[in-house]
């Protein structure tokens, strides 16, 4: 398991400095929704160095997007920050690695022409403008196609007669785009690919029957590219996904010190790397990821009986079917409130530097002292539309009645409960399917602060929640582990590798649902459901 103090780690095969200088450390890079992070691990899977770059999505002409120039800038900056961390800690400079892995946000629409040029600005998972296409595809395929899936974006573009559609030569994810820029290979890990188009668990590839149906459906709306030709090749974890090209080395490290030829694992989405980071790739295991979005994933032992609008069926990095409840809106609003309180603390006379972790810790501790139902307060964390609850365009709101108890603790508890409310609604579909799970682990930045978030999530989902030491490591560490798996893939399954090599002896802290907290959240959720129509009214009254 990981150790979050890089300075305390050492490789059993020699010093960490020697391991890095010899090119035996493994690099993972994740392009997350608010941060691009680079993570270097040793041969014991301990984090030995890291680097990062902050970025934010933008709403440009009604479309949530990230500039790809910024993606490259952030990729280079995060890598340079990691190199600086290595130099500071170990007095050496990396020039090669045992392997590299790329991870990024799943879904969305990143279409390029035959020359590799972007045809329209990158449309992220956050966009909810694909309702017509998603509904048509879901009915035609008898398989839930969520609004954010890449195939929904492509078909919607055809329905809308967008002029670029006939020129589409490739549709990929952000992770796939970065991987291609570094290796020249147009491939995706099967988990990432499962958010582009449905995967057949028997073949671990795109479902051929559904490809034929979708192709016919696409052609009805516009001159259409051949799906099999424009979608990336699908690879399972442990497969050879190419190596760093000379141009890729210069792109990642403009200083010219990084050598080409480093092997890459298949690029994976944040769902797949989250499964790895929580050791949740075996059947009947599951995890909850809390970040800008929030989602729960349960690895299925049996196929779902019916199609559910609330449930995606994606896959693990090895192609096993996973039921996924994905909510577009997660902890961003909690973070916004924390920034406001940080600014207040810094503005106090005589205030020194404000520690952000201390602010979060203080606020979340206050949430545990609050009324179980948040004192009658109600919050909506909807910065964007939310398909699970049928909200097309979101507006963050804080509501209270004249009799509500407006305290700091109730305010924070209301915001945390809001982050979990939509997930709880979506998880009801899993209960209807009688899906069983042996363990449910939580991870993401919110769980860097121990205790409160974990206890409130347990109450919201009415199930024990475990948090491991890897909880805040995220996808960069997870994809670094997938890159390390390249050397063991011929000998062990990914589940065996994680159990035997990565998580052997790992400890987890488990919180069970408190009955009083469960009853309080149920009261909160009832108010949340009843007030959902306010989202439509707020959006209509305050155009973006």
TrEMBL record:
Organism: Frondihabitans australicus
UniProt protein name: Sugar (Pentulose or hexulose) kinase
Pfam families: FGGY_C, FGGY_N
Domain Carbohydrate kinase FGGY N-terminal: 26-265
Entries under Gene3D superfamilies matching the protein: 3.30.420.40
Ranges for domain Carbohydrate kinase FGGY C-terminal: 287-486
Alphabetical GO biological process terms: D-xylose metabolic process
CDD domains, sorted: ASKHA_NBD_FGGY_BaXK-like
Keywords attached to this entry: Carbohydrate metabolism, Kinase, Transferase, Xylose metabolism
Protein family (similarity comment): Belongs to the FGGY kinase family.
Transmembrane segments: none
Molecular-function GO term, any one: kinase activity
PANTHER family attached to this UniProt entry: SUGAR KINASE, XYLULOSE KINASE
Domain of life: Bacteria
InterPro entries to which the protein is assigned, alphabetical: ATPase_NBD, FGGY_C, FGGY_Carb_Kinase, FGGY_N
């Amino acid at each position: 398991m990981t150790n979050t103090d890089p300075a305390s780690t050492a490789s059993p095969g020699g010093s960490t400095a020697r391991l890095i200088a010899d090119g035996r450390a493994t690099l993972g890079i994740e392009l997350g929704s608010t941060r691009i992070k680079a993570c270097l691990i040793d041969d014991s899977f301990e984090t030995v160095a890291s680097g990062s770059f902050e970025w934010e999505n933008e709403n440009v002409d009604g479309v949530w997007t990230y500039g790809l120039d910024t993606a490259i800038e952030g990729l280079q900056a995060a890598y340079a920050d990691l190199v600086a961390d290595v130099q500071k800690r170990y007095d050496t400079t990396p020039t090669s690695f045992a392997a590299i892995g790329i991870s990024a946000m799943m879904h969305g629409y990143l279409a390029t022409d035959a020359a590799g040029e972007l045809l329209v600005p990158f449309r992220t998972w956050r966009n909810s403008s694909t309702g017509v296409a998603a509904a048509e595809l879901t009915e035609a395929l008898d398989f839930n196609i969520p609004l954010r899936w890449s195939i929904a974006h492509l078909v919607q573009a055809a329905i809308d007669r967008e002029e670029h559609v006939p020129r589409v030569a490739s549709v990929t994810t952000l992770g796939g785009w970065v991987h291609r820029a570094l290796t020249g290979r147009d491939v995706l890990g099967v988990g990432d690919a499962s958010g582009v188009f449905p995967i057949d668990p028997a073949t671990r590839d795109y479902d051929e029957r559904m490809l034929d149906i979708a192709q016919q459906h696409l052609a009805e709306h516009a001159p259409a590219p051949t799906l099999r030709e424009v979608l990336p090749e699908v690879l399972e974890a442990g497969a050879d996904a190419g190596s760093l090209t000379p141009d890729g080395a210069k792109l990642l490290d403009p200083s010219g010190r990084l050598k080409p030829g480093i092997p890459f694992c298949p690029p994976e989405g944040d769902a797949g790397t989250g499964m790895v980071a929580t050791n949740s790739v075996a059947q009947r295991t599951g995890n909850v990821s809390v970040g800008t979005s929030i989602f729960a994933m349960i690895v299925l032992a049996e196929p779902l009986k019916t199609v559910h609008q609330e449930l995606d069926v994606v896959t693990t990095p090895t192609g096993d079917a996973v039921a996924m409840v994905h909510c577009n809106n997660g902890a961003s609003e909690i973070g916004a409130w924390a920034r406001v309180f940080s600014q207040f603390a810094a503005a106090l006379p005589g205030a020194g530097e404000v520690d952000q972790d201390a602010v979060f810790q203080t606020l979340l501790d206050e949430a545990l002292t609050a009324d179980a139902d948040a004192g009658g307060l109600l919050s909506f964390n909807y910065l964007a539309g939310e398909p699970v609850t049928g909200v097309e365009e979101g507006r963050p709101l804080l509501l209270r009645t004249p009799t509500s108890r407006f305290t700091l603790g109730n305010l924070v508890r209301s915001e945390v409960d809001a982050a979990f409310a939509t997930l709880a609604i979506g998880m009801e579909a899993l209960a209807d399917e009688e899906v069983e799970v042996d363990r449910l682990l939580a991870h993401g930045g919110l769980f860097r602060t121990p205790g409160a978030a974990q206890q409130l999530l347990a109450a919201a989902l009415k199930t024990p929640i475990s948090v491991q030491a890897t909880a805040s490591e995220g996808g960069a560490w997870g994809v670094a582990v997938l890159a390390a798996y390249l050397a063991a893939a011929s000998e062990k399954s990914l589940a065996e590798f994680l159990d035997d090599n990565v998580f052997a002896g790992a400890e987890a802290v488990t919180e069970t649902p408190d009955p009083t907290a469960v009853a309080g959240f149920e009261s909160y959720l009832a108010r949340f459901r009843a007030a959902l129509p306010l989202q439509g009214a707020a959006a209509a009254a305050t155009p973006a």
